[in-house]
Amino acid sequence: MFGEDLIYPIQPEDLPDRLTDPATRELLLEFGLPYMKEGAMGLFPFGNWEMGVLDELPSWPEGIEPVTETGPFFRIGKWVGGSLVVDGPTGHVLRVPTGPGEDHLGGLPIADSLEEFLTMVAVFVTGLRSRHLAPPTSAERQQATYWTVGALIETNETSGKQPAWSYVLHNT
Q1: Considering the entire predicted model, what is its pTM?
Q2: Which residue in 28, 27, 24, 48 sits closest to 37, CA to CA?
Q3: CA 98 to each of CA 52, 54, 66, 80, 136: distance values in angstroms, whole numbers, following the listed order
Q4: Contact 126, 152 (CB under 8 A)
Q5: φ, ψ (nearest 5 deg) of residue 58
Q6: For 106-148, how does the pLDDT look when each residue is reduced to its tens digit (9 = 90+)?
Q7: What average pLDDT does the structure give for the chain?
Q8: Residue 120 burial by CB count (10 A; 0-12/13-18/19+): exposed, middle or buried?
Q9: What is the mean pLDDT of residues 12-28?
């Protein structure tokens, strides 16, 4: 999907000690993260101009309802303007809202693990690309949107219903 040349294993010296979830550590070291920018999402395995490799989120934003995960949270990218983070102890992936008006787009885990998140990203990008093959007002384009949301829900019922997934599909 992203190409072998666009998947970057994280170097051991770049893996934070406080990122303790064993499955996440193993996946980052042995497989890595894809570099991608698509569907208002960007994954940055080597950082970007705003963040370094797995930078720790300094704090949960003021005025945003806290999540059950306790952090520390490590940045892996951005999505619809908010940071994508991995919770160090659990490996849950979350989208951190940028301000109080975005509670509907973030907070809940987007995925229960990094592996599940990458699976959901593959489904999301496939649906997004398929959708763009159809004419803008066609029934096929709408069907691709609903198929993609359904496939995300099949991957993880709770996380697949996270509004950030469908927001991009319905608004691009």
Answers
A1: 0.88
A2: 48
A3: 19, 18, 13, 9, 30
A4: no
A5: -60, -40
A6: 556 788 999 999 999 999 999 989 888 888 888 988 888 889 9
A7: 86
A8: buried
A9: 96
List the domain range (segments joined by +) for residue 63. 4-170
Q: At residue 103, does pLDDT exceed 60?
A: no
Amino acid at 158: T
Please give the Cα distance from 143 to 98 (Å, whole number). 31
Q: How many domains does the chain have?
A: 1
- Both tokens of residue 131? 């959708």
Residue 58 scores a pLDDT above 90: no
Residue with tokens 């849950």: 92
CA angle, 26 then 29 then 33, to 5°: 105
Let me know if 127 is exposed, middle or buried by CB neighbors in 10 A (0-12, 13-18, 19+). buried
Q: Which amino acid is at 93?
A: V
The pair of three-digit structure tokens given for residue 117, joined into one six-digit string: 């998140």
Give the residue with greater pLDDT, 46 vs 112: 112
The helix/strand count (H/E) of the chain reads as 5, 8
Q: Which amino acid is at 84?
A: L
Q: Are 130 and 144 in contact (CB under 8 A)?
A: yes
